[in-house]
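debug: dumping io for the single-chain case to check the tokenizer round-trip. Nothing else runs in this session.
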Amino acid sequence: MILAKVAWRSIWRNPRRSWVLISAVAVGVFTYVGIVAYIDGLSLQLVRTAIELQGGHIQVSGTGYFENPVIRTQVTDQRIVVRVLDALKGVRHASQLRSPGMISSAEQSAGVTIVGVDPMQEPAVSPLSGLITEGDWLSNDPSAGEVVMGAALAERIGVLLGERIVLTASHLNGDMSAGAFRVRGLFTSNSAEYDKTQVITHAAEVRAMIGFAPHAASTVAISLGMDQGVQEVQAELRARLEGHGVEVLTWRDRSPMLVMMDELMRLTDVILVVILFSAVGFTLINSFVMVIFERIREIGIMAAGGVRPGQVRLLLFMEAAFVVLIGIGVGAGLAAALIGWWSSVGLDLSAFAEGLSRFGAGAVIYPSVNPERIATGLGMILIMVFLAVLYPAVKASRFKIVDAMSHA
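debug: decoded output
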């Protein structure tokens, strides 16, 4: 307790120097927390896009479909999967029929993926019905002959809302099958690639066009509402569906690039801390070397009065700890204010919207604070401070009492 009081008073002997050190730490913490919150927000948006537009938290499909998504590797009977899913709590699901095909307008043609859905079930696992920018979501009439598509795809083939297009796909018997549809709605998502390649229509229309069996599905998308308990649900589904010729994959299984990106971002935290606080560490070393040389005689008197070398080291560590903790408090407070404002308005990156959408991110990024990652970073900061003060503290504890007391 006495050492703590001495350390606290010591740092305010030279308030200008102390505030310079506190400011350096605060700027480092502010920058670190802000960048990590931005990176986490971007990562979360990429993951959310992958989950919402590419099959949910978990996807059930025919064995081998993910590796080779052809129409013949369809789920043999979705009723089996649905019965299992209905028995689980907190699980939302929707079936899809998918087939590669061609879309043609009066002006242009393009290769697309034709996706058949149940308009009533699909909103449970996908946000598409809420992303309509022109027109409406699919009606409940399975024979209405309508599609919704990305606004980017509509622009690409030169078709407007309400106009007709032709979809062509390969039938299971090997023949080509085609159908005329009217554009009922246009959507815009965070993924430019998705918007340019997906055409959504009724499952009944795709079933008739391709020749799917009445209860067949290419995939069954499963949403859990949060990215928690995914592994447990996956294991349970695998156990219950064993022997039915299906595979159960989480979004991590289907998106290895996103998983690798997340791991790289965690490595970035370490690199960021090292870069930001290396300069702060050298500043601390220089400052505390100056401190001990200014206080050589004082340290000698303390040692003569019975203060042990370990206590001298502890005193300097306490002084550094007080400076750093104040700096962390100031930096974290400023970062919290920024993130609070940032969370309400978002960081508008419209100038880079096209590039971001290629990766599945929107033009506005909202920060996300991961307490575990922030705590890890702050812990690393404290370790770096300890290492920075180690040399001055050891040097001070090794002063010879007689020489130190006679120092002018």
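debug: round-trip ok. The chain has a mean pLDDT of 82.
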